[in-house]
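A common beginner's mistake is to predict each chain separately and then try to dock the pieces by hand. The better habit, illustrated here, is to supply every component at once so that their relative placement is modeled jointly.
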Amino acid sequence: MTLSIKIGKKWAIYSLCIGLASMIFGLLGLTSGLSLAYGVNWSEWGISTVFVYPDIFTGVMMAIIGVIFLLGVRPQWSGKQDAVSFLVVGTLLSALFFGVYLAMMGANAIGYSMYNAIPAGSVYANSVADWEGWIWLNDVHPGIWLFVFVIPGLYLTLKLWRKE
Amino acid sequence: MKAKEILGEDAELVLADARYDSINKVVKTSLIKGERKWSASDLLDKVFLNKYVGIPAFFALLWAVFQFTFKVSTPFMAMIDMFFKWLTGYAALIPNDIVASVIGDGIFGGLGFILQFTVPIFFLFFALAILEDSGYLTRVAFVFDRLLFKLGLHGRSFIPMLIGFGCNVPAIMAARSIEGKKDRLITILIAPFMSCAARLPVYVLIAGAFFATNAATAVWSMYLIGIFVAIVFALLLRKTILRGDPAPFIVELPTYKMPTLKGAVLHMWERGVSFLKKAGTYLLVGAIIIWSLSVLPWGVTPGSGESLIGMIGQTIQPVFAPLGFSWQISGSLIFAFMAKEVLVESLGVIYSVSSDVGIQAALVNSITPLSAYALMVFMLLYVPCLATIGVIKKETNSWKWTAFSAVSQCVIAYLGALIVVGVGTLLGL
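With all components supplied together, the output reads:
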């Protein structure tokens, strides 16, 4: 089964970019998460959590998604039709994680609005104390904004899928 | 053994090869091959069934499930918590002290407190329903079969194990679908190690208190440890008392389907409502019994060392001293034998608090984070509930295997928690 080499090469380059980006940001997150466990906070060096999110497992998950994209590069380059699988699954997993992260941000927003609505010193204040000082930017990380770059892949995949 | 000597390799493999040869011959004469479009299922299976990324992809999906379950449910849990605080305020207005204490400390402090964990339980069932309805969970059994078969286990065992994420009772019953007697028995014995929804309130409470930003990951790790211990225990059984080769695993993979919101909600409700029923029946009775033990003999400070529950806890505490558990936790572990949620309920009554924040503060003051993680491991591996013991007896039709299951789980739980404390101490945690 073959795929137009021209399209295959385009996909391969696209998968390579997305895969490398996921891998790099994932590994940076993993490393900064490990450093944080030993008391070294990268944000003190001016590195924003929006770009390097210091959480070991968020980093590992991004790296796994990156590996899935990267595994598809070589077969896509040589025009194998089934190579699109890696792009499809990588895209789907990115979309799923994006949805979960967004839901988590939404939950924090609800918690924060409850925190603001309850007067300090009230008997209920303890229940919402977790959201003290929360800002939405704390929840933005590469797992969220990288999805924007995955959208063209999602579109391309759906388009070809329908055509085939 | 003789067949293996004659054939030069495993008879099962020779049979499988012969079976596929026959199938190929039939296919060659009856099927005309042509250019075929790849279906969505083919595309997805290429990755999800891939021998290198199939298992990491499963762990990644499971991690996403627990992030969703734990973190998205927190504001809703806070709402229920505030609701019961509001009700407790009204209970305090009751003029009769005993009635006010039963309602305020017993029912709202114990049962009311545990009801807030309905939210993560429902969220977990919702996420699992989506994975199940999409057709993915069957693939997980297939992906793990490769690993399990190498370890001498039956791939089908993984399906009851996955069901065990919801409840261990149907998981044990699902082992009926396994043909070999030894394979079935091994599956029954390892199914209780899978972390069921009833353990979730315990994890959420402890992880929330001790591991703050990494709480969801700490909870996720429990599920991974459960799978790991189940596989190791199965391997141990296979190499010792239940020797033999596993039967080959043949499964028809359904095509992937887009899960519907209605279907997922219905599945979630069917499974989650059993937790609500449990809360309305024996968890309520349990709350009242535990409250009675915490205030008797009459006149003692509720939940203190002088109360009946205090005496029980202090008697058993030396056994758990190496794990760093306080007498309050040790006493609660006895009641958790009935059902895992009861631990949370009894901690609420013993510490005389009616909110997760109150219990979490009390726990932080009584044990170290290392002991807290050990407690999570103990709760994961310890006998899930009385109902599980009952169903093991029913399915094995043997008191011997039932006793073996219960005792081995207690021993493994203790050893598991001890390993956590030992390794953690060595690492200076």
